[in-house]
From TrEMBL:
Its EC number is 2.7.13.3. SUPFAM superfamilies: ATPase domain of HSP90 chaperone/DNA topoisomerase II/histidine kinase (SSF55874), Homodimeric domain of signal transducing histidine kinase (SSF47384). It comes from Pediococcus pentosaceus. It is a multi-pass membrane protein. Pfam families: HATPase_c, HisKA. It is found in: Cell membrane. This is histidine kinase. The chain crosses the membrane at residues 12-33, 67-84. InterPro entries: HAMP_dom, HATPase_C_sf, HATPase_dom, His_kinase_dom, HisK_dim/P_dom, HisK_dim/P_sf, HssS/ArlS-like, Sig_transdc_His_kin-like_C. PANTHER family: SENSOR HISTIDINE KINASE CPXA. It is an enzyme of class 2 (transferase). It catalyses: ATP + protein L-histidine = ADP + protein N-phospho-L-histidine. Keywords: ATP-binding, Cell membrane, Kinase, Membrane, Nucleotide-binding, Phosphoprotein, Transferase, Transmembrane, Transmembrane helix, Two-component regulatory system. One of its GO terms (molecular function) is phosphorelay sensor kinase activity.
């Protein structure tokens, strides 16, 4: 810490005043001792005898005056150091407070740059850590607010588009702008399809909100992994056949079991398989696999469809993101499926990643083998 010119003069003045006071104190003590020796012959004789006994080669090496001066010098040096050190620490604290006020005035990118020692350095480290924590909380709060704003904007857009179509077609019927019953059926069918899209969005939004709560609840069950994968393959068999896909499953070992919320984990694989069916253009196979490595289970949902662009891989788990780069409903997706899957996996203390190359696109999930019996997640 660099002292200002004023502080240096202040420190120098403190030293001068302390030295003057100590000299006056020393003189007073010396006079008192000298008076005591002169007024007390027995004490004076005792000091004289001790003095004569401590000689080397007949040379006297000390006197009580010399001893007094030595003791006073050491005591004075200690007192002077203590006074200057205390004043210097007060100056350090003053600088720390000034820096803290500077940060509190809105300069949150500033940190106290001092390298001190002892308790004051711990104070500096604590203040800097506190500021870092506050900044991090503020950034998280801003990100959360932006996230909420984006959520409202995206939901409003996705609800407005089909709702506008529904109102438009119903208005055609209301205004009798149709030629025959076939036109009415066409208009109502289109309105029905749009209402299904709205229902799908609302359901996905509700599910995402539910799994993204600050304290979601998991109902822990024991899950036979091989049976789960086979049931998933069977449940999507008809839809896969219509889109010319074949779904296969593999589990190693066959009797592999994990604990977790069966309903929510099932939702993860439902979303991933649905995603593969919608976006695995040109593919013929969907592969479901699971294998145990120590206390971890590695799941993979893969398809041999066309490659996902590299710039899109990092955004796949963002809410409302679609690889096709538009907010159209051509694929029928809401853009929430993968975000829901990620939230559920994280609730189970796991991770999910996306990989894609010219041969296959895969989602790899890592889950611990066992979950706590009862879990209210932070």
């Amino acid at each position: 810490m660099k002292l200002t010119g004023r502080e240096k003069y202040e420190l120098f003045g403190e030293g001068v005043i302390t030295v003057i006071l100590l000299l006056l104190l020393n003189l007073s003590v010396f006079i008192l001792i000298d008076s005591a020796l002169k007024s007390n012959p027995a004490l004076s004789n005792a000091v004289f005898m001790v003095k004569n006994s401590i000689t080397i080669g007949g040379v006297q090496i000390w006197s009580y005056q010399k001893i007094f001066i030595l003791i006073m010098f050491l005591a004075d040096a200690g007192v002077l150091y203590w006074r200057l050190e205390r004043r210097y620490k007060q100056m350090q604290l003053r600088h720390i407070i000034a820096e803290l006020h500077y940060i509190a005035n809105g300069h949150f990118d500033h940190r106290i740059p001092f390298e001190l020692s002892g308790d004051h350095q711990r104070v500096v480290d604590s203040v800097n850590s506190l500021v870092d924590s506050v900044i991090s909380s503020m950034e998280e709060e801003r990100a959360l607010k932006q996230s909420k704003d984006d959520l409202i904007t995206n939901v409003s857009h996705d609800l407005r588009t089909p709702l506008t179509s529904i109102i438009g077609y119903l208005r055609l019927i209301e205004d009798r702008q149709f030629k025959n019953e076939d036109d009415i059926l066409k208009y109502t069918h289109t309105a029905y399809l749009k209402s299904i899209q709205m229902k799908s969005l609302v359901e996905d939004l509700f599910e995402y909100t539910k799994v993204s709560q600050s304290n979601p609840h998991l109902t822990i069950n024991t899950i036979n992994v091989d049976s789960m994968l086979q049931q998933l393959a069977a449940s999507f068999e008809l839809e896969a056949k219509q889109k010319h896909f074949v779904i296969t499953s593999q589990c190693t070992p066959k009797d592999l079991e994990i604990t977790g919320d069966a309903e929510k984990i099932g939702r993860v694989f439902n979303n991933l398989i649905t995603n593969a069916l919608k976006y695995g253009n040109g593919g013929k196979n969907i592969f479901l696999s699971a294998k145990q490595i120590n206390d971890t289970v590695i799941f993979e949902v893969a398809n041999d469809g066309e490659k996902v662009p590299a710039e899109a891989l990092g955004k796949l788990f963002d809410r409302f993101y679609r690889v096709e780069g538009s907010r159209s409903k051509a694929t029928g997706g809401t853009g929430l499926g993968l975000a829901i899957a990620q939230s559920i996996v994280e609730m189970h203390n796991g991770t999910i990643e996306a990989h894609s190359n010219d041969k296959r696109t895969s989602f790899v999930i890592q889950l611990p083998l066992h979950q706590p019996v009862s879990k209210d997640l932070p």
